[in-house]
Every structure is written in C-alpha cells, then in structure tokens.
Specification:
- The chain is mostly beta strands and 227 residues long.
- Strands 1-2-3-4 form a four-stranded antiparallel β-sheet, with no helix packed on it. A four-stranded antiparallel β-sheet has the order 5-6-7-8, with no helix packed on it.
C-alpha cells in the first residue's frame, strides 16, 4: 500500500508539473482583422493579415505594421536566407496577386512580381514543397523554382483545394466540386506528372503512409489508392 501511495504521489506531481509547463499566455496580437499565417523570420515573428504584414521583435509582445507591401497579405515563406511574401491588391477595379522576395534574410528586397488576377480579395495562398513554391487560387496552380521571382502555370484542377500533403517527394491534393467529378489527385514526384486518383468519393482530407496514399471522405470512411 505504501508503494502504491508513493507511486500515486509521484504520478500526480509529474502530471501537475506537465500541466503547469503547458500553460498558454494571451498576447496582444496584431489588430485590424484576421491573421492568416505566422512565421519566424530571423529573430523576428512575422504575421500575414487582412490589412497587411506585421512584425514583432519582442516574441509577440508588441507588433508593428510593415511598409514592405500594401493590400492584404496572404502568405509567408521563410527558408535559409529566402523570404517570400504573397499579397493581393485591389487596383483599377481588379485584384492583383504579387510576391515580394528577399534572398538575404530580409535585408534587401526585389521588385514585386505579378502572378495573376484572383477572382476576389481573399483568393490565393502559397505553400512550399521541397525546393519549389506554389501559388494556388480557385483550383489554378502556379509554380516558382527561384524563390518567387518568376511564376509559371503548373496545373488546373478546378474546384477548391481542401487538403494537401507533401512527404518523401510525393505530393497529394484533395479537392471538392471539381468539374465532372469529385476526388483527389496526386503526383509521384511532387512537381509534374499529376495523376487523377479517384472520382467516387468526396474527400475531406488526404495523407500518405509509407508511400501509400489514403484519403478520408465526408462520411469518415478511409480509402486506399490501389492504382
């Protein structure tokens, strides 16, 4: 009994210690609208938001709005010494999507690069897989191999991207409301040669395990790609 009580007290102490170390503290984040993404850039924290780009050099205690861009900041990518900002402006009755890149950790910046004309202000997002950057909006994908300095039309899937993965050189994308079918697509090398996977089910998310591609449909049923 004494051993049991001792083990119980040790277990309770460890549980309380872990709970205390896992506490969250509310910070005074950027104001003026929703924040879409947060990234660490060098020794600072950067936030992409509805009314622009914000930076913090005090671990999120205070924020300053950056003058690097104008318009809505949709995304950030920071890797090695490369920093890429995705933003959308409303100019001459048109929405215009741009990226702005730095290759020295944000010390100097290249001129903005135009990508395309989104259908609305909230359209567009950017993500990185391997060495490539992708920009997606409304099922249209552009790709950049040089840190956002040039963008090339990569693929048109149509519909709305609902989930994606990138692991071991394999990239998968799950979409809904695709023209003519509802399903998932994937690439064996993460860059080209996209292959249609399935049109039977409406996917909710997609993932990869040991090079096998699975997706889960809206009825929470799991399916394995056998092609």
């Amino acid at each position: 009994m004494k051993i049991f009580k001792t083990l119980f007290l040790i277990s309770a102490f460890l549980t309380l210690t872990f709970a205390c170390s896992a506490q969250w503290s509310k910070l005074p984040g950027p104001t003026g609208g929703p924040i879409f993404m947060i990234k660490q850039v060098g020794n600072e924290i950067w936030a992409a938001g509805k009314i622009g780009l914000f930076t913090s050099s005090t671990n999120g205690l205070t924020w300053q709005q950056s003058n690097l861009i104008t318009g809505m900041c949709h995304g950030l990518e920071s890797y090695n010494d490369t920093v890429v900002i995705l933003y959308v402006e409303y100019l001459s009755a048109n929405f215009k999507a741009y990226t702005k890149s730095s290759f020295d950790g944000g010390l100097t910046w290249q001129q903005p690069v135009f990508i395309d004309n989104p259908t609305q202000l909230y359209s567009g997002r950017m993500f990185k897989t391997g060495k490539a950057l992708y920009y997606e909006r409304d099922g249209i994908y552009y790709k950049s191999n040089n840190g956002g300095m040039t963008w090339n039309l990569h693929m048109f899937f149509g519909g709305y991207e609902i989930d994606r993965f990138y692991t071991n050189g394999i990239m998968g994308i799950a979409t809904v409301d695709m023209p003519g079918h509802l399903g998932s697509v994937y690439s064996l090398n993460g860059t080209n040669n996209w292959t249609f996977l399935d049109s039977t089910y409406k996917p909710s998310y997609i993932f990869c395990n040991n090079s096998e591609i699975y997706f889960v449909d809206y009825n929470f049923q799991e399916h394995l790609n056998t092609s």
